[in-house]
């Protein structure tokens, strides 16, 4: 049985922090694979700056030299207004029957799910396991304790809480802003992605 983490984000662009986070989680949680899952640029809840084809190409460049990392474009091909994390996890469970799957997310998303702000929150929590990364000073244990949905499904294996140990919060937004303002974010993202952005004139 393999242990697989599902790591969803816009990756607009993928950053060195994304890669470092995935590598840290894979190491600490003994994951065999981390699946990078970029969302569609048709999502109504995100103001996407880049076409899917560019984000997909940069992601493939970024993870090319790491056999633990896999890119999957499943959500890019869905109707963005109808795809939810619960459905995505059901899809991957069918793709990897018998394997142990975890949804990787930040503590801020744990708060949102615990408050019932996600579609199919109950089904998602009841039928999946989660790796939750510390973020923004959020008390993850208190978040679980204060949510009836989370605490009543906390069987000791439902939530794997991870404090990365370093506060590295350089965001894709910051990198886009640097490119647009003539800044130099070269060492905040993979060199191959930096060169691709310059070549294609992205984020101007």
UniProtKB/TrEMBL annotation:
Q: Which GO terms describe its biological process?
A: NAD+ biosynthetic process
E.C. number, please?
2.7.7.18
Top-rank taxon: Bacteria
A Pfam family reported for this protein in Swiss-Prot or TrEMBL = CTP_transf_like
Q: Which CDD domains match?
A: NMNAT
Enumerate the GO terms in the molecular function aspect: ATP binding; nicotinate-nucleotide adenylyltransferase activity
Key words, A-Z = ATP-binding, NAD, Nucleotide-binding, Nucleotidyltransferase, Pyridine nucleotide biosynthesis, Transferase
Please explain the role this protein plays, according to its UniProt record. Answer: Catalyzes the reversible adenylation of nicotinate mononucleotide (NaMN) to nicotinic acid adenine dinucleotide (NaAD).
Q: What is this protein called?
A: Probable nicotinate-nucleotide adenylyltransferase
- The gene behind this protein is nadD
